Fold this sequence. Notes:
Layout: E1 3-8, H1 23-26, E2 73-74, H2 78-107, H3 109-112, H4 116-135, E3 137-140, E4 144-149, E5 155-160, E6 164-171, H5 173-177, E7 181-187, E8 194-199, H6 201-221
Antiparallel strand pairs: 1-6, 2-3, 3-4, 4-5, 6-7, 7-8
Helix pairs in contact: 2-4
Amino acid sequence: METGTDRGAGNGVGAGNSTGTDDGSGTGHGSDKGNSPGEGNSTGDGIGGARIRSESDGADTGDGFGTEGGPGWAGLPAGLLRLRRLVLALTVLPLTAAVCVPLWLLGGTGWAVLAVLPLLLGGWGWWLLGRNWRSWRYAERADDLLIVRGVLWRRLTVVPYGRMQLVEVTSGPLERRFRLASVQLHTAAAASDARIPGLLPAEAERLRDRLTELGQARSAGL
Length: 222
């Protein structure tokens, strides 16, 4: 069972997820922030060729998403990685025992060595979880929220504040045990909804309140 809180963030219509647009026009209300000196926040031709500049110095970071060296970007708490690795360990270890014991009883020690395969897969999953956790970044800009994630396939989501309709904070049993919460963003278009998992409860509530306030302000100006 999950617990959650939510707040409305305006009643704008339209898509809340966009790439490949000038930062000024992507929010849908005519802001010309992209033309201000020193900010230069823009995306290129979509996910593959996006180039985002740091808001502090306007320097292109060169990774295609602007997450390296940009002070405006925030990562996820280490508690989320510990939670996911705990779930992995609780899955792999019983599976290894379930494979090893019958093989050892029926075929001897030689066959029981095959039980190392689940352990190898678990080690690979342990490493992948670390890379996935490090790939998550989010940044609050003047007119929109950016979310970047993915290891092999990088994905950039841009959620204009004026398009948000509802902001939820949820926390399941395991998340509460690790003192974590997730923020779910709902927009007018379901396909453009976004989620930031594994935040500290205080940060999740702060983000919810800020996004709700900005969403209401932007939607009132549309």
